[in-house]
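question for whoever is on the cluster today: can someone run the full assembly for these? four chains, 452 residues total. i dont have access anymore since they changed the login thing
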Amino acid sequence: MTIRVIIVDDQAMVRAGFAALLAAQADIDVVGEAVNGVEGVEVGRRTHPDVVLMDVRMPEMDGLEAARQLLNPPPGVTHRPKVLMLTTFDVDDYVYEALRAGASGFLLKDAPPADLISAVRVVAAGDALLAPSVTRRLIADFATQQRKPRRGDPSLQLNGLTPRETEVLELIARGLSNGEIAEKLVLAEQTVKTHIGRVLHKLDLRDRAQAVVFAYESGLVTPGDG
Amino acid sequence: MTIRVIIVDDQAMVRAGFAALLAAQADIDVVGEAVNGVEGVEVGRRTHPDVVLMDVRMPEMDGLEAARQLLNPPPGVTHRPKVLMLTTFDVDDYVYEALRAGASGFLLKDAPPADLISAVRVVAAGDALLAPSVTRRLIADFATQQRKPRRGDPSLQLNGLTPRETEVLELIARGLSNGEIAEKLVLAEQTVKTHIGRVLHKLDLRDRAQAVVFAYESGLVTPGDG
DNA sequence: CAGTACATCACCCATGCGGGCCATCGTAGG
DNA sequence: CCTACGATGGCCCGCATGGGTGATGTACTG
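^ ran it for u. tokens below:
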């Protein structure tokens, strides 16, 4: 089963180079080419390729919009190719847009030919592949932004809390009053107050509002997990 | 300038194989080996390698904890190697922990030898590299997770607030007291109370703690934007 | 067995906070 | 011109909240 590929790029030389490179592979067929996004979408719909090599910067319609249209087809169109984005420049901001659109990869045009070929095979197989510099940024963003389970500052202090105190803190962070917490945990309200007092003291917080802030910032609770 | 590498894996054959493979490269030196996380951290601190090849599953201390310790060194230790995680099994849940810990890459042990070698060079250069299946998952998570900055329910109600009220709500969500808010906005504390009263009423909230919850849940404030 | 950590509850006290009610002032809109 | 609305501010009141202190029982650990 050969991999059907189309190449969408406004530069004739780039198209020719990639086409020659890929066509030389026994398992890859170049079944179409296009010079801009509009044409790329049209060719994609008509030739239903497995993989679309898509340049980011193009006249008429850029690669991002074209990728979006190919990856979110209108009702009636069932074919969804894999999209491998290409760019001449290093990591511009389009990367994230492309990934959100559903692109399977992002390569720089100066990558070794062998990388391009293997990238086509990888995305055709349903996996994904990014240029190393892109991967690095993605991981960095992921690590900083994904602050849910583990975080440096607050979660360390969280370890100073007893299980019961942590439990109470979580209920505070849900917006419950002392009475409601007492009811929920089957406790006297005074006991709840004692626990809260300890929590505030241990975490150096002034009031329950700050406790809520801390709970969110530390990842004890997360927006949406209500 | 050669790349200094240490290999941390509990299986002797794996260590031997990788060591032979890497040592054959002119630009790579294998300067140490370790059989578990504890030893890995120790060897890492002593030999200050550029790259640490770290197995995920190991006795004593697993690769994740070891990676965390190497990547978040205690005060006084300035050396921070790049960590390239290795696993035999396909994408387990440890991937995300490893990335959060700051790992520069994640490869499967059945990857082609050429990939391993190039991966070492990539991470040594400061870039990152993931196994295609890992990349795929990361992109998928990134795409789905990225589109929730603002959510339906709460943010709609937010429109009912006046600019001033919204401003006050945000300060509540930072943990400020009425007095502090008054000072920050150059207002009488009583005015702050009036604004807060309206906010609570409009949003059907009981107290400022619930207001903080609402601010986070609606996306008005976000964990980490301090 | 002694010591420690945790959970539980009580009493007292000061006050920050939220509710109710109302007044003034500016500006935008009919 | 006059109305509506937002922003600003004041007063009073009641209560939930937070601080301080102490006591009891249990469970684990040295």
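summary bc i know u wont read the tokens: Residues 189-203 of chain A form the longest helix (15 residues). The first strand of chain A starts at residue 3 and ends at 8.
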